[in-house]
Amino acid sequence: MEYQMAHKHRRSAQRCANTKMPETLTDHVFDVINNLRPSVRTDYLKKSIKSKYVDDLTAPAKVRRDRAIEKWLYQEQMNDATEVRLILTPEDFQILPRVTYSSFISFVQDDILSILGCETVPTEALIGSFSGGASTSRPRTRSYPAAKYLGRAHVTESAKEVFESIMDEMPGWPTDPSTLQMEVVRGNVMFTVPKKTDIDRVACKEPDLNMFLQKGIGNFISSRLKRIGIDLNDQSNNRRLARIGSIDGSLVTFDLSSASDSITTELVELLLPVHWFTLMDSVRSPITLIGEEEHRNCMFSSMGNGFTFELESLIFLCLTRAISYFTGTRGTVSIYGDDIICPSGISDILPFVFEWFGFSINMEKSCVSGPLRESCGGHYWNGLDITPFYIKEPIKTLVDLLHVANQLRAWGSIEGLSIVDPEIEDLWKYLASYVPKCLWGGRPSSSGKYQLVSSGYPHSRLSGKTESKMNGDGGYVHWLNTTWGRKHLWRDAVETSCRTLDPKGFELKKVDKRFTVAPLPALFLHELG
Predict the structure, then answer these.
(1) Which residue from 133, 190, 208, 450 has the least number of CB within 10 angstroms?
(2) 57-66, 69-78, 302-311, 388-397: which has the minimum mean pLDDT?
(3) Cα dihedral sign for 50, 402, 380, 359?
């Protein structure tokens, strides 16, 4: 009766897609979840659901930012010590029992070279692309890819030389000074983004042309890793292996703290072929601007650099494979950034080796014993999927509510069955009472924040109020650059002549249920009747 009355009183207010939600709604959701009956899944959810939550009562934005910068600078002090250690390590130092430092490094160097496939850098590794992210010359609102081919473009001095050396390889790029004005800068610019309740995450905006070159290198490394079964565009393999490890204990999962910020210049020079290091060193940012102060980096590349993710994946893979090889340990090694999966037989020695090279194991997120394994967002307990969901900010709008309600339903779906845990049914119905009936009937694979996943068929969906703008000459150059390597004219076609602006609020749009072909979601008991 309570839910029927709630829906009756609110129904008229739900005609507007941008309806604001009650301020008490978020706390109610947390209270209900914290009072769920104890179990492995629910206890894990209770522990995790608010770990990334940020509102006015958590640490203020300035405090979170200052803590993040302080942590970043502390990591740079550690990086400086790592570089000294790597330089002074004698060749006969036994980094593993009866394994000298020189033989271990030689193995890693050979493995990296084998994956890259060449000692000198092919031209294709320099033909990058632009993303829609902010750069040092443009804020996020003016950083659509097509714009970066024209007008002012920031670049560091060394990267400018690299870029000028490949300009003839890029058809149509308007390199005349009147259309592309290259402006030399000293490096990147630091910013922070929300991460947890008490601290932000540090990233850096790169100079425009540096990023273009970095993304080319990153894409090349990614394509080479894919040849040996490491697909950096697919997290499902790591999740599958984490589940196996949770069942039989054969595999363990490691997570690193500040992983990308811990890769030192000395380490990259030590492990990579000289031509690769020289190129990557030329297009990275040696200086980071923190407010008005310049910081000279010990880290090789920060988050925001176009090859950081691929480079760290390559290095962590080869370090882990070397440990397995020299210890004679059989088993699967899989890497996705700093998510490391390896045989349990090297779980004791891997932390020492990684820490020698400057990397710190995050023991809170690493799983080396017991029935829990976690990797790439998948959490498993004895093979059972206990992956939690997170509420990262207060539920303020209908879009926020739909997202939480759909996450709750997905979490409560009982694996192997087509029903949802009855214990969360009342909470879901309470959230659903705020949703107009026309938005019910969404499907798990496509609804997201725009329909309510439930039985039946949807009448409408929320859609962002957007508008398109033409990209002009920049769109044409973007098309040339994006499609230069395509093999299939129709399958690889892209649209670059116009762009869609960020949505300004949401509106209701009708959908034709005849085209709703996705399967029904798992159902609550009240939906089975």
Answers:
(1) 133
(2) 57-66
(3) negative
In a domain, residue 55? The reply is no
**List of E strands, 115-161:** 151-155
Whether residue 417 sits in one domain with residue 350: no
In DSSP notation, 296-340 reads E-SBS--BTBTTHHHHHHHHHHHHHHHHHHHHT--S--EEETTEE
Q: What kind and span of H or E run contains 204? A: strand 200-205
Percentage of residues of the chain with pLDDT beyond 90 = 63
Query: Which token pair is 22?
Result: 């009650």
Query: What's the angle, vertex CA 222, arms to CA 219 and CA 227, rounded to 5?
Result: 130
- The answer to whether residues 356 and 365 touch, using CB atoms and an 8 Å cutoff, is no
CB neighbour class for 269 (10 Å; exposed up to 12, middle 13-18, buried from 19): middle
Choose among 374, 313, 319: nearest CA to 346: 319
First to last CA, the chain: 18
User: Is 130 part of any domain?
Assistant: yes
In the chain, the number of structural domains is 3
For residue 100, the cross-strand partners are: 94
Domain span at residue 148 reads 63-381
Same domain, 360 and 406: no
Same domain, 438 and 494: no
DSSP characters for 86-128?
HHH--TT-EEETTEEHHHHHHHHHHHHHHHH--SSPPGGGG--
Q: Alpha helix locations (H) across 342-424?
A: 350-356, 398-412
Question: What digits encode the pLDDT tens for the residues 398-448?
Answer: 999 999 999 999 999 987 788 999 999 999 999 999 999 989 988 887 667
Residue linked to tokens 């998948």 = 378
**φ and ψ at 205, to 5 degrees?**
-85, 125
For the stretch 472-521, pLDDT in tens is 666 656 666 676 666 655 555 566 666 666 666 777 888 876 656 677 78
Q: Indicate whether 104 and 247 sit together in one domain.
A: yes
The reply to whether 9 and 102 lie within a common domain is no
Q: Looking at the structure, do residues 248 and 112 belong to the same domain, yes or no?
A: yes
